[in-house]
Structures are given as structure tokens and as C-alpha cells.
């Protein structure tokens, strides 16, 4: 079997490691934090900083292929590793998806609809961007934001200066506020031979800016779901992508019908794809491992309707007494419960097909 190197030791790395293990593969987790949940599921580990060249070189020597579970892998780290072993998805996917502005420019260049936006490096830029886009609008850091951290909704011109000062790191991007009906996402996979398969779309609800539920099937027109899958496929082909990619969409009213705007992409397995482990012939974790190993992709067909619910903070304590026989819990083994921390999720089967 092969050894898959994984950068990042969070729950996504843990779930990738479990999926690889099921296929008889080893994983080697590289993460600076010794308390990472992924370390518990494999004996092969490196605890070191992402700029520790000796540790990175030893890691590259110990593995056959390298992937990652978070999009903020430093560019220098990606470059250093890619010179030694195949890095999948590639450094281009990382560079684009870790910078909201680069991401939006890339998507727009492929004729994929994104929110109207402007680069903001100064308060004067912000004033001009508000003139151009109107209010409300969403001011975001271009880098390092997640779970709504690193963004502010501007409703009033008077909000601008304080929001500009508060958001770090600069530069920022101002996006028009999209008055969406709902949010959906598609998890898509592409392998080394160019095979592409998409999972069904999930309908996502956020709570306190953190994903709360993903419901499948999404309550949208069948044509819209096909369109979302098509856009996701265009993105992975354009990136010459290998692995699983998450694509988040706003569903916006458009006359009698609805249209799609891409919010962001994530070059990794995605929280809104955790439902696949309960109800798909191949789940997103196995699909990512198959893709990065150069295997044929698995069938993503869905066997039941499902709602994935994140267990955030002490909600994890509702397991096992708060669940029933149609509910699959998946806990991440994190020892310290903190408010706002993703501790696990449950998949509730709502209808069997
Ligand atoms: P994630 O945890 O998904 O990576 P993030 O911090 O990268 O989140 P976004 O996905 O950009 O942030 O935004 C978080 C949420 O804020 C979106 O899912 C959406 O609900 C809302 N939002 C973001 N941008 C806009 C916008 N331009 N118009 C309306 N709502 C928005
Ligand atoms: Mg994001
Ligand atoms: Mg998002």
C-alpha cells in the first residue's frame, strides 16, 4: 500500500485518515499542534511547524503522495513539498483558494457568476467600493477567514472606517450583499485521469456564521442542481484539479426562477459533505483518497435522504442519549469542549429510498 501524507491534523484530516485506512493505506499526519484529533488515528505523525524544512523533507521522504485538509497551507510549504512528491490538489488550487480576490478573479475568468466585488487596500478604496457596489455589502479579509471570522456586514457608511480598521490581515475585499433565497454546496471530485463525479447538492443553514445543517436533497429545482454540478465540474477541469473540492453557492431569485452565484471554493473535503458518509456508495473522504492515489473514482450515488447537523461546543454531550436508531453520530475525539468549536456531527436519515 501507499502512504498518504496529510498536512493538517483537524477533524477533516482524521476522517481522511480513517477512509485511507479502510482502503489498506497508511496516512502520515503533519501538524504543528500536538493535540490534533487526526493524530489519534494513525501512528505516523510529525509535530512541526509548516516552515520547518528538515521536518518537511523527512515527511516528503516518508510518503508517496501529499494532500492537505485546510486551504491555508503556506505557499512556500506547498512549493517545497511539491518539488519532492506529488502534491494533490496542486499548488495552483491552493494559491487561488486561499485568496478571495484571486479566487473571484479566477472564477469570473471562467464565466462563473460571483458577487460583484472590489479590492480594498485603503479606506479610500473602501469608500470608492461602497460608491460602486452600494450597501449593504460584506467586507472580508482576502486571506485566512473561516466560520465568518474575518468579515463584517456594512449597512451604513458610518460602519466603514471601524470595519476597515478591525479586519486583519489586509488587504480586504468588498462584496455586494447577495440577497439569497438559500445556500447550497456541491462536493465534486476529479482524479488523475480526468474523471469527474459530483455528489448531490446540499442545502446549508448557518448559525452564528458556523455551518449548522446540511440537508439533502436540497429544496431546489432539478435543473438548478444540475447547473450547480456543471459549474463545479467547470471549476475542477479549469484548475486541472485532483481531489475533492467543495463549492458554496448562493441561490438567488431571478424573475420567476432562481440563479446561482458562487460564494467560495474549498480545495479539500468539506463540512457540507459529511452527510455522504452515511448515505452514499462512496463518501467524500474515500473519494478524495481514491482521487489522490490515482484510483478510479467511486460511485457517489445517494441511497437515502439525510440531514447532517454539526455538534458545536457542548452540543456534543447530546450523544448518545439524544439520538435515535436513524442517526449516525461521528465525534472527532477532541478532549477540550469550547464554545464555537466543531466537536462532531450527526447524520439523521430522514427517508430511505
Ligand atoms: P466558511 O466557514 O464557509 O469557510 P468563511 O468565513 O470563509 O466561511 P464565507 O463563506 O465567505 O465565509 O461567508 C460566510 C457566510 O456569510 C456565507 O455562508 C453567507 O451566509 C454569508 N455571506 C458571505 N458573503 C455574503 C454576501 N456577499 N452576501 C450575503 N451573505 C454573505
Ligand atoms: Mg471559507
Ligand atoms: Mg463559506
TrEMBL record:
Is this entry keyworded Repressor?
no
Question: PROSITE patterns, per this entry?
Answer: ATP_GRASP (PS50975)
Would you tell me the Gene Ontology cellular component terms? cytosol
Database matches in InterPro entries? ATP-grasp, ATP-grasp_carboxylate-amine, ATP_grasp_subdomain_1, PreATP-grasp_dom_sf, PurK, PurK_C, PurT/PurK_preATP-grasp, Rudment_hybrid_motif
* Top EC class for this record: ligase
Its UniProt entry gives the catalysed reaction(s) as: 5-amino-1-(5-phospho-beta-D-ribosyl)imidazole + hydrogencarbonate + ATP = 5-carboxyamino-1-(5-phospho-D-ribosyl)imidazole + ADP + phosphate + 2 H(+)
> ATP-grasp domain: from which residue to which, for each copy?
104-293
Listed A to Z, the keywords are:
ATP-binding, Ligase, Lyase, Nucleotide-binding, Purine biosynthesis
GO BP: 'de novo' IMP biosynthetic process
GO MF annotations, alphabetized: 5-(carboxyamino)imidazole ribonucleotide synthase activity; ATP binding; metal ion binding; phosphoribosylaminoimidazole carboxylase activity
Biological pathway: Purine metabolism; IMP biosynthesis via de novo pathway; 5-amino-1-(5-phospho-D-ribosyl)imidazole-4-carboxylate from 5-amino-1-(5-phospho-D-ribosyl)imidazole (N5-CAIR route): step 1/2
Q: Which family does it belong to?
A: Belongs to the PurK/PurT family.
Describe the subunit structure: Homodimer.
Q: Which HAMAP family does the record cross-reference, listed alphabetically?
A: PurK (MF_01928)
The entry's protein name is N5-carboxyaminoimidazole ribonucleotide synthase
